Sequence to fold (264 residues):
Amino acid sequence: MGWNGQPPLKPKLGASNMTMLPEASAIKLGLVIDLDICVGCQACVVNCKEWNTSGYGAPLSDADAYGAAPTGAWLNRVHAYEAGTGADARTVHFPKSCLHCEDAPCVTVCPTGASFKRAEDGIVLVNEDWCIGCGLCAWSCPYGAREMDPAEGVMKKCTLCVDRIYNDNLPTEDQVPACVRTCPTNARHFGDLGDPNSDVSQMVTARGGFDLMPEQNTKPVNKYLPPRPRRAADDTPVSLLSMAQDATPTGFWKWVDSTLEKLG
Fold:
């Protein structure tokens, strides 16, 4: 079974009408990324590279990885930004990969049809056998989500781990993109954003999820959840002695009290 308990849809390379987008699909597979709890650990970046180096397409290259001028291709990157001022200042870690846009300009600009969008689930892929490395799709992507592999000479991008999510040889919990499976803070979520009742859709509704750069009119499937407002600082003086002497301790002292009771 596939990611949703249904028979897996087999990946299709190429497109019947090159440079044309299919009719909008009812199923819209994508990611929801919570900017409030992403800590910028890069685990998703590394696991993505590891899986995709041995997965759907040609290996992702690394040249002079530990030298002075390393080069290579990555399907997912995490950027860090300083936002806000004063008490509201914070560091926001911003993961970025292909957003699998409904109106994907990378598809319509491709001269060979190598860049295509699947009608059955909305995933945007690259048929590397047809890619001539012209770079037009990268120029047309407003998000900078595509990278030319310097070794293979073809364009690389996030595939939503299409070779994982429909792979019945994997345990059910592993039938999600590698980045989602490895995130230690559960900041990344995968599902059908075309289904308003799915977990990811309800999450977007509840948290006010947003499109990246909506003014580009690409209608990205992936959504971001905004950082939550900071809690107001409590300047009330704290006395550890009075907390310890409280007849009904709370917080840390409640834990200490219950632990000591268990120890007898």
